[in-house]
Amino acid sequence: MKKAILIFSLSIFCFLVSCSKEEPKNLPPTAVSLTFPTQNQLCINNSITFNWSDATDPEEEEIQYRIIIAKDRQLTNIVETRSLSASQLTLTLDKATAYYWQVIASDESNNESAPTVVNAFYTKGDASTNYAPFMADLKTPENNANINSGSVSLTWEASDVNTSDDLTYEVFFGENTTLTLLESAVTTKTYDVTVESGKTYSWQINVIDDKGAKSIGQIWSFTVN
Description:
- By secondary structure, this protein is mostly beta strands.
- It folds into 2 domains: 90 residues, Immunoglobulins (Immunoglobulin-like, Sandwich), CATH 2.60.40.10; 88 residues, Sandwich (Immunoglobulin-like), CATH 2.60.40.10.
């Protein structure tokens, strides 16, 4: 009798399990694309209408956009952050200033899309003829990466709205958070260093144009296996 009851109970359990369905996972909206200001744009007017593409949500939930505007590529020195349902926003910013911006979409369930790339742009000054370069865009090694010991190439990108300017780079590098200037007039966008196992290193690139204008770079770190 006990055996029959056990078999019956197991049958009911298996039936319930087979009939039950997992709730479908709520998916985030699609990422958007920044349309204006474009990358490295020189904006003639400091009253700027930011535009980006519309996101779509798999569950057709309402979408909110969070725009972040900062004075550094890491988006830590934030000058404006807004949440809105439209895919554009008009703001008046300081003149003759470099800005960096990004947009993230979210749905009603608070699922966030992948962030956009960070676009850089410059607002024009009243009588400026030369602008400081944009901050270096560090590429490899990635921030907080784990890499193997030996020779490592530090790589970055750099640009200037004064496209005829020649750019040079200051390379700072060191263990943990102690940075030392390795070279002050690098002309390529790569620099090889030797790293040892079990250590953490930091690096920074400053960009200088041929008129002496300088942009101080962000600091990235990586650990050696």
